[in-house]
Task: structure prediction
Amino acid sequence: MISRVGVRPAPSTVIAIVLGAGLPLAFVGVFFAWPVGAMVARGLFADGMLDLSGFAEVLARPRTLRLIGLTISQAALASAVCVILGLPIAHVLYRLRFRGQRMLRALVVLPFVLPTVVVGVAFRTLLREGGLLGSLRLDGTFAAIMLALVFFNVAVVVRTVGTTWEGLDQRQEEAARVLGAGPVRVWFTVTLPRLAPAITSAASIVFLFCSTAFGVVLVLGGTRFGTIETEIYLLTTQFLDLRAASVLSVTQLVVVVAVLLVAARARGTRTAQRRVDSARSGRAPRLGDLPNIAVTLVVAAFLALPIVALLLRSLRTADGWGLGNYLALGTTGSRNALVVPVWTALGNSLVIAVQATAIALVIGLAASLVISRRPRSAGLRRSLAGFDGVLMLPLGVSAVTVGFGFLITLNTPPFDLRSSPVLVPIAQALVALPLVVRTILPVLTGIDGRMRESAAVLGSPPWRVLRDVDLAIVGRPVLAASGFAFAVALGEFGATSFLSRPDRPTLPVVIFRLIGLPGGDNFGMAIAASVVLAGVTVAVIALVERLRVGTMGAF
Result:
């Protein structure tokens, strides 16, 4: 059906969209736009007057220019490497069919959902003196950060490009081969143009994640190889220079919006492409697939190596091999380094992650139901697209900015929440919300509108159509979204490091504190705690992978 531009939408449609969007907009407005806006205002206003001199002052600093250049260069380089490695892996995992494929897919996806602190600790364990790759002397170098960023984000390219590639009709490629085109020509003239939107979308998202990386860069690079994100952290926590921090937050926000626009445009092109039954799209490996298979196996070994190093190091104690580091998790560390034992912090993390998941699911499901509608009015469609973009902003805006914004805004009635236990779950729900929407929305947009129309013609009221059509179909994706939201909330570190109370810390905050303290016993506890946190995350993601919902493909 061709949409007619200028058609006035039905009143019932407008009312349903307004009511459905009200809760998500209120949530994002109060807990994202307000705190971030307050931080931004500190860079734009001085003594109640608009003053842009802070931008010229901060952006003219040699350190600021160096950090901006380092942030952009490392994000661009990591994105390029992820695309180069991700394409052959996507071909192997989504165009071929072989035994053990599902397990290999799970291994590739696992790093993306590991807590950033765990990834940082794993690479420090791998690269430091005495580690499996300690002889390379990469600990504390720019190369270590790059390896961790690639480890963390190659799954985005593999899943985004792979799910698109899996659904493409192979007959165009076969026709080109019949006409005499070689494999290289078929790739550049037939396959690559059809994959270009997915590649652009994946590269944009990887650039966004790398440019806003916090935990990995803080653990591996410290202040020597800082980024805009870590600089905002230092300016707010150590120097209390909120004006300079807000200037960098504005700069980062501009970059994030630009990248999200590119990703959204590419995602829209991908949605319009024809898809086929993926069960018929695979084939057995051939001799010509050996280079891609070799790249896949090498990268899989690279992805497994930091986790293996982390596990082995957790079993080494001052007295040799054993479980001493795990037994110490029931204590507060040497010289009472912690306020509470590690197991208590894990319990806090689990409870908070459950709360954050519940919040993100309610908000994300309501938002997805609204965005999935396709009204005739062009203006209403543009409004829904804008609403979708707003919900993606928490994905790329500095978690440090959000966390500190909470502290300076949510301190007066009726939102005096600084000492409230709900503040950390709300912050984690903001981080998980975009993933929930991107998991559920593709399924809702794929529902044939005639199913809703048929139910309505048969006399079902709108609430029953919603229950029997939309919610019935979206059940499994909601379970998958809850798994991803739980894993993301469990490992969130940026905003939580500002907001968690000393007597109720989360496990990532405790791990970061332990690795910053002297003593081998404390570091051993940090390693063991990282293994425990990674193990819980792996269990959740294994369940999600079993549900077979391609979340990364939604990006």
Q: What stands out?
A: The chain has two domains: 14-49+324-555, 59-312. Strands lie at 45-46, 49-50, 316-317, 320-321. The CA atoms of residues 54 and 474 lie 48 Å apart.
